[in-house]
Amino acid sequence: MGDDxxxxxxxxxxxxxxxxxxxxxxxxxxxxxxxxxxxxGRLQYLDLFCGPGRYKDGTESTPLxxxxxxxxxxxxxxxxxxxxxxxxxxxxxxxxxxxxxxPGAETLVHQPRILNRxxxxxxxxxxxxxxxxxxxxxxxxxxxxxxxxxxxxAVVKDWGCDCVFFFNYxxxxxxxxxxxxxxxxxxxxxxxxxxxxxxxMATLDxxxxxxxxxxxxxxxxxxxxxxHIVTFAFHTEAGRTSHYLVLVSKHPKARELMKSIMxxxxxxxxQGVPSFRYNPDExxxxxxxxxxxxxxxxxxxxxxxxxxxxxTVQEVSDLHSQAERVERRIYKQAxxxxxxxxxxxxxxxxxxxxxGTMADGVTVTFPAKETPDG
Length: 374
What we know:
The protein is α/β, with parallel strands linked by helices and 374 residues long.
């Protein structure tokens, strides 16, 4: 990663750091009680592209924010292992200096390890062959070198292990047609998925290319056993997507936690439905009232995709195709509206539940075929 990347923090970089830090807070709060039950139990935060810890304008980046969280919580001070790595020796040394003067760092039982290595096959093999303590991996490279399906699998294979990574759509979009970096693209998407994506991309342009690329990434992750994925897009001032922050996990609780965090940073919430993207232009030009909104589309999609099925509310929010980007509370809003409009049947019905509620265990029956006026 170039030194100039850390010259000045941006709104996008601030939001990215806050999302990762809040996820660490939630993840560690869930994992720590289990760790405390085990003699010598530990949990681990691993940052493979850590940077110097601070932007030149003085703003702290993710490593220092995570360490401050650890210092503030007695359980984490005693049981958290932190490993930071950067291939740039100047960044690694700058972070060592920052850690030495960080107030309270001396109270950490496991002092931060700061490494200076390339993230290559050896790192992947080392992680893959080890039985990892519950680990949160954060991977934020400048481009895409070092990101691979093998890396994600090597971490997420073990209990309590999740991965959050930075997917630089701009760089990947350009690299897909660059024969010199196809090895990196194959590592990121997998050989078969990459071939299918490149064939499909030949017929697409603009936003359709973006959708196809992100969906190919999701398919690759799911085929590697990571069923719970959440993506959050960042846009430039011009309104174009620059990159995504992506969570991958094997546990649905991780997905729900990250969705609840990312939802709060969405730049638009038409009908209360988060966009799962930060777009400065949306903040300046909010959705106009009276237009069709995501909740309307969600209601129609539920009735179409789940026609003829009876499911619990929790099963609806787990099985629906948009589950990766829709919070359960939004599903409940949609189901309440569908029930009120007579488009679904619920058990127990509305009259036997507290007004305006839809518990996870309520069963929902979608008609096999809606009536013409439904």
